[in-house]
Amino acid sequence: YRLTRFACFLVSMHGDSSKPEVAKAKASLAAIADYLIEERIRESDLGRIETREDLKYAERALSGAAQDAGLASSEFGIFKDAGFRGMYDMSLKKLMLHKKVEAKHTLYDFMGLEELAGNLFRVTQTAARVKTKEVHGLHALSETAKSVGKEVREMMIKNIGVQPENLPIEENIPRVKKRLT
User: Fold this and answer.
1) What do you get for the CA distance between the two ends of the chain, in Å?
2) Pick from 108, 135, 123: which is nearest to 52 by CA?
3) pLDDT tops 80 at residue 180
4) Radius of gyration of the chain (CA)
5) Which of 8, 25, 27, 125 is the most exposed, fewest CB within 10 Å of its CB?
6) Contact (CB, 8 A) for 91 and 85
7) Does residue 92 contact residue 164 with C-beta atoms inside 8 Å?
8) Calpha distance 103→46 (Å, rounded)
9) What is the band of 72 on the pLDDT scale with cuts at 50, 70, 90?
């Protein structure tokens, strides 16, 4: 008979460990199973998923801070785009074209860990500045978002030597979650 590795694994796991051949097979196949599990779960996958979740909550907090500062819900898109213009030196729409992400998707879901973390920092710091500097109105809020975005951009370029818009896209986070379950 010819068995797959998985079939060998199942047979050995149910075999009698007191037999040296079965014990050796269990040890070998357990090592292979560990390798396959590690290969399936890359470190960055978990970090990306967690950071993406944090970014969702941070965006909500930023939205709340902006509303408290007098931003109408119809103006939030302009305000949010200002942050992208600061960090990426282009609008969100142009950034999605640049990164070749279809409009039906959420760009954050295709970002790597460093880029997600940069955006998380940008969003949380924009909210903090809006609150501490008592920024009010669409124009002032947009300028604040753009300014913080530029600061994060400069820091990222200084630290990693790559403009944020040129960081590669990665596997869609919902697909990563599906792969890991």
Assistant:
1) 32
2) 108
3) no
4) 23
5) 27
6) yes
7) no
8) 25
9) very high
